[in-house]
Amino acid sequence: MYFSRGIAAVLSAAACWAFAAERAVTVGEPVIVTATRFEDRYLDKPVNVTIITAEDIQNSTARTVPDLLSEKAGIAIHDFFGNNAATTTVDLRGFGITGAQNTLILVDGRRFGDIDLSGMQWSAIPLAAIERIEIVRGSGAVLYGDGATAGVINIITRSPANIGNTAVVQGRAGSYETFEGQLYANYFTRNLGINLIASNFESDGYRNNNRNRQSNLQGELRLLTERGDVSFKVANDNQGIRLPGARQVQPSAGVNQLETDRRGATTPLDYAQRIGNRATFDWRHETSVGQFNLGIGYRDKEQTSYFDQDGFPDYRVANLNVWSFSPRMKFAQPLFSLANTLVAGLDWYSWDYRLRVSNSTVNITQPINTVKATQENAAFYLHNTTQISPRFTLVAGARSERFKIDANDFFDPTAPGGAFGSGAPAGSQKDTEHAYELALRYQIASEWAAIGRAGRNYRFANVDEIYEFGGPPLFSREFQFLRPQTARSYEAGIERRSARGLVRATLFAIDVTDEIHLDVFSTGIGNTNLPPSRRRGLELEAQQSFGGSLRLSGSYTLTDAEFREGVLPGSAFTQQNVVVAGKTVPLVPRHKLNLNASWAITARTRLNALVTYVGEQFMDNDEANTLGTKIPAYTVADLKLVHQEGAWRFTAAVNNLLNEKYYNYAVRSQFVPDRYNAYPLPERSFTMTLEYAFR
Asked: How many whole angstroms from its chain centre is CA 374?
């Protein structure tokens, strides 16, 4: 019944758009790299992809990358504080709190996620550094492997070869004592180019104890060769943020801090800091048999955090570095006289992780626990595209990936605060998983195409998901190795693409087995493989230009995420024998709607408007759906006015125009039936930006 209604909606939307839209010439040769790991045509590929261009970013009301992504179909975000996306997670196709681990984030084709739960550092990628963002839904496991359950988001930074000689200086000021400065410079001559991007952001934030400071520096040197190019990129990011904690609500005790002290801080002493560096080398070379790409990358970070915990402090320093090596080859050779392209490649990643745990900054030289882990992932993949006929394209691919982790925990009972601690016995895990994909595209007419896809994907648990406290009687630390998560996904869609606009409708289903997730119903604070679950949904997207002055776009997402079966056993410390079969997965809104308008008032002045509606959601920890209270639905409207005057560019923006008092993350208490913690987001705020471009 669900899919019958969905198919009807797809056909109805497509028919209405076809009737209303003027006939137009098919749009011309858009390029996407994420779908094949090589620059390639998009229009003849059986992928569900959305491309956000640099122009889209410049005109958008979004202030961060997650804001940009949330405007698109199938994507929801959960933000704790609303301060430069410092603690924001992006969820594609309804995974809730584990969305960050099931949507693979790439920067220039390399995974940006790590083997811990620190999450994507969105603010480490300044908007000025982005050339485009490619969102590939439902696909990517064959080409990219671990963690691409719902799809892949690839942030592609600017290349000096694509931009003229220029320098841009930008200053921004806004509500909550927000100030930001950016410098972008690019120089290119003959076959050699260089660019540099530097930025610094500071804000007190909407909440008390939420001051955030972020600085970024990024540069690239690119050399064009006779048969390709060579690129070398380096970057540094540095962030320090204060953490205000949650606002507590407990009706039985008459407590509602969302009403009495919305902007207050529960944890006035907590904070976190992070310093990261990355360097990449890429070589692209055309040969007589095809194109060869070699990628080598290095990345490191140091993260420190302090949580007071009502006088029982926890201070942590985590260091992580990762090397990557990814050679690949594209063979464009006929197969039985049919146009055919085969992509073959290797991926190798090696992580080194070290965590020190103490009770204060001064005692970190003698930590209570020192956790060390090394992880290696090695994979081989084949991805083949065959043009069966001028209208029919078929893609088939497979990947095999080997995963190995070794971990140990050194416990020092003589360390300050170590008298009641424990250490985990050393452990290791090896697993091999595989992914496959079969996809097709049929060009129904010059502007209409149908797409179908089926595949298998997987995810390995990371080190933070296996290192925690065990159960009674001692509640000692242990490494809780988990089975790999696997999923089978399916989708079918239809799209109409013309020079003036786009309409797309997609139905999808993802069946997940052994989902890796924090199990709050078990004894202690452990992770587990959850019972089987399913995500199903409908995604609608449309955009249309009316002359050269008005552009309208919108998206709607219907998501049904539920557990297919199972009981969470629980314990005497939490709920017991919690039936989750048929229950809705927390933190997944069933309905989400975006409407966007961009109006060129004059040749130099443009007004952009965005309205976002997000439906109600069950709270984190409420797998049983029994709390009786949900995260309320909310509607947020944003406006942005842009005026260009010669080399000057002026922008004025207001976010949350309607002054909605909302939040999109809340967590249910494990111990008090009607208590929950919520993280309120900023009310109405203003921003002004002034930019000057030297040509």
From this structure: 24
CA–CA distance, 285 with 229 (Å, rounded to integer) = 7
Indicate if the alpha-carbon torsion angle 22, 24, 26, 27 is positive or negative: negative
3-state secondary structure of 501: strand
What phi-psi label fits residue 550: left (phi over 0), alpha (psi between -120 and 50 degrees) or beta? beta
Cβ-contact 215, 197 below 8 angstroms: no
Tokens of residue 277, six digits? 């560096």
Q: Count CA atoms closer than 13 A to 1's CA, side-chain side.
A: 0
- Helices vs strands, H then E, count in the chain: 7, 41
User: Over the stretch 52-78, which tens digit does the pLDDT of each residue have?
Assistant: 998 889 888 888 999 999 999 999 999
pLDDT digits (tens, 9 = 90+) for 615-667: 999 999 899 999 999 999 999 999 999 999 999 999 999 999 999 999 999 99
Does residue 124 contact residue 114 with C-beta atoms inside 8 Å? no
pTM: 0.92
Cis peptide before 268 (omega within 30 of 0): no
The position carrying tokens 């997940």 is: 512
Q: How many CA atoms lie within 13 A of 354 on its CB side?
A: 7
Check: CB of residue 334 under 8 Å from CB of residue 299: no
- Mean pLDDT of the 152-160 span: 91
Give the three-state DSSP class for 275.
strand
Task: With cut-offs at 50, 70 and 90, classify the pLDDT of residue 159.
Answer: confident
Taking the C-alpha atoms of residue 464 and residue 411, their distance in angstroms, rounded to an integer, is 17
- Residue 488 neighbours by CB under 8 Å, 6+ apart: 454, 455, 456, 510, 511
Handedness of CA 90, 93, 97, 101 (dihedral sign): negative
Q: CA 510, CA 416: separation in Å to the nearest integer? A: 48
Please choose, from the candidates 74, 89, 121, the residue with its C-alpha nearest in 3D space to the C-alpha of residue 679.
89
CB of 546 closer than 8 Å to CB of 552: yes
Tokens found for residue 583: 């229950």
Question: What residue ranges do the domains of the chain occupy?
Answer: 2-694
pLDDT above 70 covers what percent of the chain? 92
User: Taking a C-beta distance cutoff of 8 angstroms, is the pair 138, 653 a contact?
Assistant: no
CB under 8 Å to 430, separation ≥6 — which residues? Answer: 402, 403, 404
- Identify the pLDDT of residue 16: 38
CA 190 to chain centre: 37
Per-residue model confidence as pLDDT tens digits over 452-462: 999 999 999 88
Buried b (16+ CB within 10 A) or exposed e, 165-192: eeebebebebbbebebebebbbebeeee
Backbone torsion region of residue 74, taken as left when φ is above 0, otherwise alpha when ψ lies between -120 and 50, otherwise beta: left
- Top CATH class, 2-694: mainly beta
Cβ(306)–Cβ(104) below 8 Å:
no
> CB–CB of 454/438 below 8 Å?
yes
What is the three-class DSSP state of 359?
coil
Distances (CA, A) of 124 to 130, 131, 170: 11, 15, 17
Task: Answer for the pair 80, 63: CB distance below 8 angstroms, yes or no.
Answer: no
For 427-438, the pLDDT digits (tens) are 999 999 999 999
